[in-house]
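User: Can you write out an input/output pair for a complex, sequences first and structure second?

Assistant: Here is one pair. Inputs:
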Amino acid sequence: MKVIVNGETMKTRARNLDDLVAALGFTDAKIATAINGDFVPATAREETRLSENDAIEIVTPRQGG
Amino acid sequence: MTLKFYETEIGARLLIGTALYPSPQILADAVKASGSQLVTVSVRREAARERAGQGFWEIIKTLDVHVLPNTAGCKTVKEAVTTAHMARELFETDWVKLEVIANDDTLQPEVFGLVEAARILNGDGFKVFPYMTEDLGVAEKLVSAGCEVLMPWGAPIGSGQGLANPMALKTMRAYFPDIPLVVDAGIGAPSHAARAMEMGYDAILLNTAIAKAGDPVKMGRAFAQAIEAGRLAYESGLMEPRDMASPSTPVAGTPFFNIDSA
């Protein structure tokens, strides 16, 4: 199915957010996630099913003012 | 009197942003040289191959300072609230520097969204540090929404203009004598920071003025000293300015003094 990860459209076979994060190589990375503008805690990624055209944000610590 | 944010004591009145430094090492050295105990950070999209966030986080951990994540770049309540939640999980802190931005040119706070987002986040258990204008009505609404710190701008973010509206900042200090007030943004020189501290502000939050200095490490020290000087001056009680001269050297006993020509 087609999803949008950090603004980029891609195809994935992942059924839930946890699978997608793993497929993208983020398993042991320090990240936080959101789907369609709503925060998804790390503990809820596995139960969060993906749907066609979901917009997913995967973020990490960064410099800030 | 020690500085406290939400019951947590902070050992220095200079709060520093972590962006725009020439290198991670200079960032770390500048923070150490400044004596700052609190730095701001952000969350941004990660590319799996780069792992840029991991490296940055390792540097921040070595500094052993408080971390205040921001919601920089957010333009809506929903963006800010979701960003705050992602930051809380990443940085393991319920502190958030809440930014809801109205306009790209001025980066001025969108105060209606700010108040609404502050109310939501306080309800979600966050300790909100709102980046705001110096408007007293907005300030009162933020306090009603649960904010125990207020952070009015000095001037637009990154402008280095100093205190654009000192009278409003002075009024705000007088109006909220018991709430920690931080001048956040627009500070360009140590003298700007000292002036805000002399007015009784509790702390200064800045980024660009140190990060973009020719020597950020030395500038970190300069700001620390200016802020300490300003604070000492405030605690000491500044003299009232007056319009006319008044001699400081005793008049009595002046040689060649003649009462008729006085």
